[in-house]
Amino acid sequence: MVKLVIIFYLGYLTESIKNIHMKNENIVFEGRLLEIPSEAPRCGDEKVAVGYKFKVEKLIRGEGVKNNVIVLVPCPDLKGNAFIQVKAIYRIEVTANLEDSTGYTIYNDYSKEKKIWWSVNIEKIKPAN
Q1: Tell me, what's the pLDDT at 112?
Q2: Which CATH number does 26-126 carry?
Q3: How far apart are CA 47 and CA 61, in angstroms?
Q4: N or C: lower Cβ tally within 10 Å for the chain?
Q5: In this predicted model, what pLDDT tens digit does every residue of 31-78 receive, in sequence order?
Q6: What DSSP string describes the chain?
């Protein structure tokens, strides 16, 4: 009887975890890069993620991002020299789950901010004016 209860409880926990994971949907928005942070090393021998400040221009999917947000972008230098531009607009998919950041050296001038997002995908949709 005790084994049956434990098996039932484990099954319940497994389903609960699945539901929590499904609710942790990535957020997609369009944002304007406000400034370039201080210099960070390029990706090479070590993986680097850099914190950037974006102004949310348009929320596409999800909720929880508004006004200015800090996004950690992994290896931004690998996207090309002209990819990161102040005032350019980007479509960014982010997650609050920072699990993917393990193994990266983080350079974040905005580390005092309460909420920091991890970039799952970022693409430039409009260059700087």
Answers
A1: 86
A2: 2.40.50
A3: 29
A4: N
A5: 999 998 887 778 887 899 999 999 999 999 998 888 999 999 999 999
A6: -HHHHHHHHHHHHHHHHHHHHHHS--EEEEEEEEE--S--PPSSSSEEEEEEEEEEEEEEE-SS--SEEEEEEESGGGG-TTSS-TT-EEEEEEES-GGGGTTEEEE-TTTTSS-EEEEEEEEEEE---
**Domain coordinates in residue numbering, the chain:** 26-126
User: 10 Å Cβ neighbour count for 76?
Assistant: 20
Q: How many CA atoms lie within 13 A of 98 on its CB side?
A: 13
Counting residues of the chain whose pLDDT is more than 90, the rounded percentage is 51
Residue 19: pLDDT over 90:
no
Task: Tell me if the pTM is above 0.90.
Answer: no
